[in-house]
């Protein structure tokens, strides 16, 4: 039996899916912009603006749902977490645009070593795609891979920054430090989204290994 809230939940799901797809495109274009010298600033800016606009649509819709339908616990967790997750999508768009601005600011960076960024960017792209799929599937076992990838990005970030301090090429060091920082922040937001999805499924923010393995609601506070 269809409930009064169901059409709004369907619309919310559609908006979130749209934000996810735009976020994947946005970050992928921005990374290609920096790594391979492609000018994607206008495309990324347009996508980032669409994500921001949709974020406000999600905020308005969730507020309306809370006022009109007084949702039960499961629906309430989804509505509340959708606000947080949509904010994460909006940050993806913003950081992606910032990455394209680094390329614009520093000009030709073809001589810079990008091997570390290539390694990190592959993980970051996986994290964003996983976050989108995670929300679609609501399978808490995906949080294991998300945590592993975030640990990897943090490890590279902490290892690489001290090396850049001693670099003789100031332009390359500054550009890489900025892009590395933006990617690290994207990874953090993907992990935050993972925790929000855990909350939707289980009502808990942090999960035990057993709960993740079982895909159950037997989770820690």
How would you describe what is shown here?
By secondary structure, this protein is mainly α. It has seven helices and no strands. The chain has helices at about 5-35, 40-70, 75-105, 115-135, 140-165, 170-200, 210-215.
Secondary structure elements and pairings:
Layout: H1 6-36, H2 41-69, H3 73-106, H4 115-137, H5 142-165, H6 170-202, H7 209-214
Protein traits:
221 residues; mainly alpha; 7 helices; globular
Short description:
By secondary structure, this protein is mainly α. It has helices at 6-36, 41-69, 73-106, 115-137, 142-165, 170-202, 209-214. The two termini are 33 Å apart.
Could you tell me the radius of gyration in angstroms?
A: 19 Å
Could you tell me how far the N terminus lies from the C terminus, measured between alpha carbons in angstroms?
33 Å
What is the quaternary state of this protein? Answer: single chain
> Which class of secondary structure composition applies to the elements?
mainly alpha
Instruction: Tally the helices.
Output: 7
The major β-sheet equals: none
* Mean pLDDT over all positions: 90
Classify the helix fraction into a percent range: over 70%
Q: Which descriptor suits the 3D outline?
A: globular
Succession of helices and strands: HHHHHHH
Number of strands: 0
Low-confidence residue ranges: 217-221
Strand content: under 5%
């Amino acid at each position: 039996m269809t409930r009064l809230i169901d059409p709004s939940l369907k619309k919310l799901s559609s908006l979130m899916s749209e934000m996810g797809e735009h976020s994947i495109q946005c970050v992928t274009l921005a990374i290609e912009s920096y790594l391979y010298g492609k000018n994607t600033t206008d495309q990324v800016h347009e996508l980032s603006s669409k994500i921001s606009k949709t974020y406000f649509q999600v905020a308005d819709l969730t507020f309306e749902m809370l006022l009109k339908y007084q949702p039960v616990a499961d629906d309430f967790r989804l509505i509340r977490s959708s606000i947080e997750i949509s904010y994460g999508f909006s940050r993806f768009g913003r950081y992606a645009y910032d990455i394209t601005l680094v390329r614009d600011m520093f000009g030709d960076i073809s001589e810079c070593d990008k091997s570390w960024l290539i390694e990190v960017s592959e993980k970051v792209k996986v994290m964003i795609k996983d976050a989108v799929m995670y929300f679609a599937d609501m399978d808490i076992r995906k949080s294991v891979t998300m945590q592993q990838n975030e640990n990897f990005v943090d490890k590279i970030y902490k290892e690489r920054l001290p090396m850049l301090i001693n670099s003789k090429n100031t332009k390359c060091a500054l550009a890489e430090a900025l892009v590395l920082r933006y990617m690290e922040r994207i990874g953090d937001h993907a992990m935050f989204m993972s925790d929000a999805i855990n909350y939707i499924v289980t009502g808990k923010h942090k999960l035990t290994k057993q709960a993740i393995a079982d895909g159950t609601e037997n989770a820690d506070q």
